[in-house]
Amino acid sequence: MKQLDIVAIGNAMLDVFLIIQEQNRFTKINNEEKEICFAYGEKIHVESYKLCIGGNASNVAVGLRRLGFLVGLCVEVGDDEFSQKIMHGFASEGLDASHVIQTKNSPSSFSVGINFGGERTLFVEHVKRIHKFQFENLKAQWFYLTSLGVEWKEAYKNALDFAKDNGVKLAFSPGTHQFEELTAISDVLSATDILFVNKEEATRISNFKFQISNTQEMKALLQVLQSMGPKVVSITDGKEGSYALEADGTVYKLGMFPGNALERTGAGDAYASGFLAAIIAGHDILDAMRWGAINAASVVSQVGSQAGLLKREEIEKKLTDFPEFKAKEI
Questions:
Q1: 134 burial class (0-12, 13-18, 19+ CB within 10 angstroms)?
Q2: Which residues lie below 8 Å from residue 172, measured CB to CB, with a gap of 6+?
């Protein structure tokens, strides 16, 4: 039985990104309503497209593998030609796919992203899966548990039970279906070593109400989340950067790493993989935040959620080149 550093449990899919020309008489943005509008019935020119492997678990697994760790996957895919592309992608990245389920006569899950006006809009389809993952033959230091589809509760329970029984540390990043039934993830939160959420997700879990949305309120939000069970809490906040709360109650804030953002798909997953990689490698939370931010900045500079994921030597070089990029205690 191979000893793995971490196993990512969640979903995998294909992402198709359509890049539309900025100057286009059939397309416009309504900034007031935050809407993108297309002329009805027209043929709209696409400048280019990208076909990429995506999905939260897949993204984090690839990120950690490129950073030098032995990584396994518990995801469920179909058996169509697109699923074969997903499986080939896992193999080319060097992931352990021995616990990937390929369901017969089932298609791949897809998302379609429209890149226009400096932002991306996603249309996501999740094929219904059963997620009967078998954990008995796994040997890992960490689980990264993330978004699953409608039938997620049994898979979550089995992963949690296995982690508790085998001393596996747990990193947790809930997804859309988990946010719809927050009471059902309370057991997972209570056993979580590191919780990864963005600001909006953090407020949904905690029911926290911002008054003026300042640094002290972010600190209070982190503390509320920690009171629900996680030892360490990480919150990303878009262009504001990220925050982290240590097990001892110390809170840190880090700004965005400098760079040009093309589109933001996979930024949170890239941050989580960089953060976790530093922790598994024995670094402290300050370094973990830096690794996460650098990885995220690289991902958003390219189209798709995996193309910009960095190798360890690339992150280490950026750390050397930007010694002033450090988190501060708040």
A1: exposed
A2: 144, 145, 146, 188, 189, 192, 194, 195, 196, 230
What residues does each domain of the chain span?
4-12+55-107+128-329
Residue 166's DSSP bridge partners are none
Phi then psi dihedrals of residue 272, to 5 deg: -60, -40
pTM confidence score: 0.93
The CB density around residue 258, as the number of other CB atoms within 10 Å, is: 10
* pLDDT band, very low/low/confident/very high, at 125 (cuts 50, 70, 90): confident
The SS3 call for residue 114 is strand
Q: Nearest 5 degrees, angle CA 251-CA 252-CA 255?
A: 150
Whole-number pLDDT of residue 265 = 86
Q: What is the DSSP string of 124-184?
A: EE----------TT--EEEEEE----SS-HHHHHHHHHHHHHHT-EEEE---HHHHTTGGG
The CATH number of 4-12+55-107+128-329 is which of 3.40.1190.20, 3.30.110.70, 3.30.9.10, 3.50.50.60? Answer: 3.40.1190.20
